[in-house]
Write a structure and sequence with these properties.
Length: about 200
């Protein structure tokens, strides 16, 4: 299965300089937030595959939800045989609809206890923010969530895909890292993931 993960900015390759058929190779598209409904709808329409998304901290500016897509924010969804746990938003650094304190994010995770038990875990943790100490930055707006680390330790999903940390913030920001059995992917702009 080939997945296109996108986040934070519309990718020139898949939008501004799009060529017909460029999205045909993908079986699933994952959006990690801070993208306009128009861009997400463009991707799902021209790819002919499902698109699953979570909200970013700037999505409060969007006037509507994207059509034809699956919102996994605060939910566990199954798409193409993959169990995707979605937790959008960022660490709270000011008031905002998609900004959470550590305690609030932990409450969101606890609310998913029953679905997680029924599904016996998940394959992909799809978030906007990173985990604390794992691809995050020292500034409050770019801090990761400690409770994501607990989630990764408990369920050991094969993939943790996030956005929010723009890779042009610094040359040492990786696109892919490993944390135990979990491949951690920063989907800023776009990233292609092949899953066996």
């Amino acid at each position: 299965m080939r997945i296109l993960a996108v986040s934070d900015i519309p990718s020139d390759k898949y939008y501004k300089f799009y060529q017909p058929g460029r999205l045909d190779e993908f079986d699933l598209i994952l959006s990690c937030g801070d993208l306009s409904p128009e861009y997400i709808e463009f991707l799902v329409t021209l790819s002919h595959c499902p698109l699953v998304y979570v909200h970013g901290n700037h999505d409060c500016n969007n006037k509507r939800e994207p059509e034809g897509c699956v919102c996994a924010d605060g939910r566990l969804v199954e798409v193409n045989g993959l169990r995707i746990l979605g937790l959008g938003g960022s660490y709270r650094y000011r008031d905002g609809r998609y900004m959470f304190t550590e305690k609030q994010m932990l409450r969101r995770i606890r609310a998913l206890k029953a679905p997680l038990k029924r599904s016996r875990g998940f394959d992909i943790l799809l978030t906007h923010a990173p985990a604390f100490g794992l691809n995050d930055l020292d500034t409050l707006p770019h801090r990761g969530f400690e409770c994501f680390n607990t989630l990764l330790d408990k369920y050991e999903p094969p993939y943790f895909i996030h956005g929010h940390i723009h890779r042009n913030y610094g040359y040492r920001i990786p696109q892919k890292t490993q944390r135990g059995n979990t491949t951690v992917i920063n989907a800023f702009d776009y990233c292609i993931i092949d899953i066996k």
